[in-house]
Amino acid sequence: MIESFGLADTLQTAFVLIVAFVLGTLIGAERQYRQRNAGLRTNVLVALGAASFVHLGIELNGHAGAVQVVAYVVSGVGFLGAGVIMREGGEVRGLNTAATLWGSAAVGAACGAHAIGQAVVVTALVLAGNTLLRPLVNAINRAPLDEAATEASYEVRAVVKLADVMAARDLLVATLEAAHYPVRDVSVEKHGTEDAELVAELVANTIDTGEVEAVIARLEASDLVDEASWTSATSD
Questions:
Q1: Collapsing DSSP states into helix, strand and coil, what is residue 135?
Q2: In the list 49, 79, 92, 159, which could disulfide-bond 227, CB 3.0-4.6 Å?
């Protein structure tokens, strides 16, 4: 061990790891400021660990060793990122934090491979993604939905009496098709012992709001329908 010890190699290793530490700190500080699950220390340790492993791979087996270690770093960080993703009801949280950990690992791996310039660029872009793009994301989220230009799935719902389900179903389908909105499927959801809700899924990817509101009005004018409404869900 003493014979293999070299001051130059030690200094190079220290430089690589210190750079990974500093860049990981920059990324982690932004996450810590926003009180995310994976904050300052987590991002620093991910960057530092990735740099250590990749640098060790280079020391042991040159570029081939680095390539092998990087492959394992990528898969390993994927499992680590999955640990910060949580589902709360219908909402999924932690995706951005997991992606940031992925970025920290990339920064560390670049440092370990002695690609310091690339590590700095990746750090800058990760920070830009988490900060500079935030106003754009907020602006898009606040923008009103253009039903005529957005691809979405649509449903028309009608609350009816259980005894009138079949007749109301025929009325629902006929009214929608007369308005040139073909029906893909109609399901029945029971509400208690007397009422049911018919749910018609439309084939159309875009609709005219005025036309659908007119369909709703015609349905509610019928003695077979107690209440009618329509909903939309945009696709990814």
A1: helix
A2: 159
